[in-house]
Automatic annotation (TrEMBL):
<protein>
    <recommendedName>
        <fullName>Protein MIX23</fullName>
    </recommendedName>
</protein>
<comment type="similarity">
    <text>Belongs to the MIX23 family.</text>
</comment>
<dbReference type="GO" id="GO:0016787">
    <property type="term" value="F:hydrolase activity"/>
</dbReference>
<dbReference type="Pfam" id="PF07910">
    <property type="entry name" value="Peptidase_C78"/>
</dbReference>
<feature type="domain" description="UFSP1/2/DUB catalytic">
    <location>
        <begin position="184"/>
        <end position="349"/>
    </location>
</feature>
<dbReference type="InterPro" id="IPR019171">
    <property type="entry name" value="MIX23"/>
</dbReference>
<keyword id="KW-0378">Hydrolase</keyword>
<dbReference type="InterPro" id="IPR012462">
    <property type="entry name" value="UFSP1/2_DUB_cat"/>
</dbReference>
<dbReference type="GO" id="GO:0005758">
    <property type="term" value="C:mitochondrial intermembrane space"/>
</dbReference>
<feature type="region of interest" description="Disordered">
    <location>
        <begin position="167"/>
        <end position="190"/>
    </location>
</feature>
Amino acid sequence: MAAPMDSIVLPCDDFLGFQMEEAYKQREVAIKKCISVASEDVNKLRTLKMNNPDDGDILKKLRKNQTKLRLIQQELNVEEVLKDRALKMTNADREPVLLRQLGTYSDWQFAQKLQSEEQQRVQVDANQLEQQKTKYGMNTRLTARQQFDRDLERAVSAGSMTVSEFLERKASQTKSSQSGVDDGYTRVTGQPKMPSILKLQQLIENAWKEGFDPHGSMQLEGRVVNTRKWIGATEIVAVLSSLHVKCQLLDFNAPSGKDNTHPVMINWVRAYFKDSNNFKPPLYLQHQGHSRTIIGVEELHNGSCNLLLFDPGTQKSRMELFHGKIDYNTMQTIRRGLHAFRALQYQIVAVVGLLNDTEFQSNTVVQQNGREVRDGGKVVTVPPKPML
């Protein structure tokens, strides 16, 4: 970095503005050269990182050089601000201000200022990361089993569950964890056995070990068993793919209608179930913090459409009504119209067939199936990131 500005000789007021401008130009040229060199280093490291994604040393060097580049860019921004302020002054005011503000602004002070700004930015990023981890259950020491026990205790305290029911549910959960089969508390009778939450978590980790969805595994730190971490559509695709089930993952990443609704998504689901010639498996529907199962559609005389879905948040007593006569009021439990879907984004997982041996062994299932993003009525097929 150049010498402090107080080393510049200022012969007269008439020449002062020109002298200041030349000094700033020299500093700007030097800083821009540093930016050019730092940018080349960052680009080279990015190329190395793409070719060696698991090399931690390259990642550390990349982050260090990115920080260095950002600091130099900030230095250039500060120089431009100081230059504009100084050149807008009158000749009579330039000399004392220059000597007072710029002449005493040493390189060491400038470096301290940049370091302080960078520390503040890093702290903000760390706080945001901590908030995200808390939101998605990634930084809590509370296990899934402990969370289950706490929820039961709160239900007893609130009077919504008796002590005998509490003991029954705890015993049922213990048996479920050992057998890997869900206790069936929230489902109606006559349905096939479902895997327990613990079993699903184990299936997810097994899928990761087989090479499916390495990016999702990295985001969740490679572990979900007996944790409260959120899982979603990509984890479901990984599990089904590891079981030789071919899936299609669709992103509806923005509202496509009035009042933040998603008519494009509704129309896609309608078209999916419209083909009655072939059996259509239910659809997995995911949005922020919740997932449901779409089992069909209901078309009305006015041309609108309702989705019929199972929601794990529905009270068991409401679902038990389907044992009796099914009428309009009963169907309200599972019926959802267009205006019920106002989340910012939705994802749908559709089962489209079975994987052959070649597809399974390649571990590039998502890439072969494709991933569709539907935004504002437009359908764009987005090739996902290749498996590494």
